[in-house]
Structure formats: structure tokens, C-alpha cells
Specification:
Radius of gyration: 19 Å
Strand order of the largest sheet: 2-3-5-4-8-9-10-11
Order of helices and strands: EEEEHHEEEHEHEHEHHEEHH
Oligomer: single chain
Length: 306
């Protein structure tokens, strides 16, 4: 087996390649990877910028990808994929990528989803005020966001099949909360790296309502401890009908390397959203998990056909 690749830390590399706190735990043959396999930024201009009025939060900007404008059959039925960004990610159109939704607008993903998919990326009204972030996701957004989704579902009712909601970090929290409070709006729920999991009776109610759930969380998450937030609830999640659990030992990039991302603190193992946006597939076409042989797009398509 190959030796662990040694990283050199010096003045040239310290900004991008700061040694991760978990790096000494790597096993023989593992190496650190610093960038996802996909290239972001190419599809963002395919999204329409819209504004939803809300007195409670202030007008909410959102980006919507309409597959009918990009070659999808006008009489087809397509899923609505809602991607909720995490904390301090609502920086305009860039949130289309941060949320995890951008790659699902690529031609390959659209085709794999069954010929098309609507993609909705709403933005919290985040801004820095005197060194503090204000306007992030909170309970004030619950009802306005639900109403926005209802409006989009109504406008495109002839072309929307099922609705999926997903997001990472605080977007994962919003994914769970929105599914819990407005269960009737969603068919599929994919919370990622969330520090919140509903109570068991709520999990059972969500499942009984027919919602299909995929819970994703890295076991070495630096910001949202798996041991603290997930381990105590694993049995509740396992007993939930129509629920799949994806808890990778290591969050990896498409090149097979263990993911490292440093923005003044290490969060590579927290950003499991990058694996979702990479379609749960390595560069060579091998799935991250054998339960997803056609990637996340294939799994979504399969659920939508049930």
C-alpha cells in the first residue's frame, strides 16, 4: 500500500494548506485533498434572480433554475430541488454554489434526474453589522419560505413532480425544521451536517406522512460533532421508515483524498455538502457508497418514481 502523502507546511503553503487537526489520524495510503472535483461558477447564470416579498424578514432574494428554459420537454414532470445554504454563505449568486445546488443544473445531472429538474436556492438576508452577522436563518424565515415554496409549486404545478429539500450545516437545520413544520410541502428530505434532529415522535410523523429521508453526516465533522449530535439519536433514525443514513468515516473529495477546507478554522469534514454536489461519485465514476450506484441524482430519480 502507498505511503501517506506528506504535506509541507511553510510560508507559501500555510494559507491554503494549514495542517488539519485530524491529519495524524489518517491511515496508510490516505492523503489530504484541498478542492472538490467539480468546477463551480459555470452554471450560476442559468438561474433566474427573483424576489419574494416578506415584511417579517425583508424581501427574500432567491434563484430559480427552470428546466423548461433549458431544453426540457414542456409537457414533462420534473422534481423541484430546494437547496438551503449554510451560515455566512448568502453572498448573492455565489450561494447557488455554496448551497450545493449549482451542479444539479449541469446537463449531465439534469439528464440523470430524468430529463430536468427545477432548482430553488433562497437566500437569507445576511449582513455584517459591527462585527456580527445578522439576518441569518431563523424562525422568522419559516413561514415566508414555506409561502415561497407554495407559490413556486403552484406556478409550475403542471411540471413539478415531487419536491426535495436539502441543505448543509445551518441549511441542514432549516431542512429538518421546514420538513417538520410544513411536512405537506415535501416528498424528500436530505439534511446534511445538521446539529438538529427532530424528536422521535416527529421523525415518526414525518415518515408516516410519506416523506423519504436521507440523513448525511461525516463522523469527523469539526463544527457539528457527530458524537454529540448524531450518536445519541442513531437508534431513532434507524427506526424511522423510509430513512437512509449516510455517515462516512471520512468526507472525501472526488480524487479520493480526505477533504480539508480552511477558512481560519478547519471545516473540510463538515462540508459534506461538497460530496452531495459531486453527486456522491468519485472522478473515476465509482460511487462513494455502493447504495448509490448512480450517485445522488440516481437516488433522487428513484425516489421520485416511487
Amino acid at each position: 500500500m502507498a505511503e501517506i502523502k506528506e504535506m509541507v507546511f511553510n510560508e507559501e503553503t500555510k494559507v491554503d494548506h494549514v495542517k488539519a487537526p485530524w491529519e495524524d489520524e489518517l491511515e496508510q495510503g490516505d492523503f489530504v485533498s484541498y478542492a472538490p472535483s467539480y468546477v463551480g461558477g459555470k452554471e450560476r447564470l442559468q438561474f433566474d434572480k427573483c424576489v419574494y416579498p416578506s415584511e417579517k424578514t425583508g424581501d427574500i432574494t432567491y434563484y430559480l433554475y427552470d428546466p423548461l428554459k433549458h431544453g426540457a420537454k414542456p409537457d414533462g414532470k420534473y422534481p423541484l430541488l430546494i437547496w438551503i445554504h449554510g451560515f455566512n454563505c448568502a453572498d448573492g449568486i455565489n450561494a447557488v454554489g455554496h448551497s450545493g445546488g449549482e451542479q444539479f443544473a449541469t446537463p449531465g445531472y439534469q439528464e440523470a434526474l430524468g430529463g430536468g429538474a427545477f432548482i430553488l436556492v433562497p437566500l437569507a438576508n445576511e449582513k455584517w453589522v459591527d462585527g456580527e452577522m445578522q439576518g441569518s436563518w431563523s424562525e422568522d424565515y419559516f413561514e415566508p419560505l414555506a409561502n415561497m415554496i407554495r407559490e413556486i409549486q403552484s406556478v409550475h404545478k403542471d411540471n413539478i413532480s415531487k419536491t426535495l429539500i436539502s441543505g448543509g450545516s445551518s441549511g441542514g437545520w432549516m431542512t429538518w425544521i421546514m420538513t417538520e413544520k410544513f411536512t405537506e410541502l415535501f416528498d424528500i428530505c436530505v439534511p446534511i451536517a445538521s446539529g438538529y434532529i427532530p424528536a422521535k415522535n416527529e421523525l415518526d410523523r414525518i415518515a408516516d406522512a410519506g416523506v423519504i429521508t436521507l440523513v448525511m453526516h461525516g463522523k469527523r465533522d469539526e463544527l457539528c460533532s457527530f458524537e454529540e449530535h448524531v450518536t445519541p439519536r442513531i437508534e431513532d433514525l434507524k427506526s424511522m421508515k423510509n430513512c437512509t443514513l449516510y455517515f462516512p468515516e471520512w468526507v472525501k473529495n472526488g480524487d479520493g483524498g480526505v477533504a480539508s477546507l480552511n477558512f481560519g478554522f478547519e471545516m473540510g469534514q463538515h462540508c459534506l455538502i461538497n460530496q452531495a454536489q459531486a453527486n456522491l461519485m468519485y472522478i473515476d465514476g465509482t460511487p462513494y457508497d455502493e447504495r448509490f450506484p448512480k450517485g445522488l441524482t440516481g437516488w433522487i430519480k428513484e425516489q421520485c418514481e416511487k
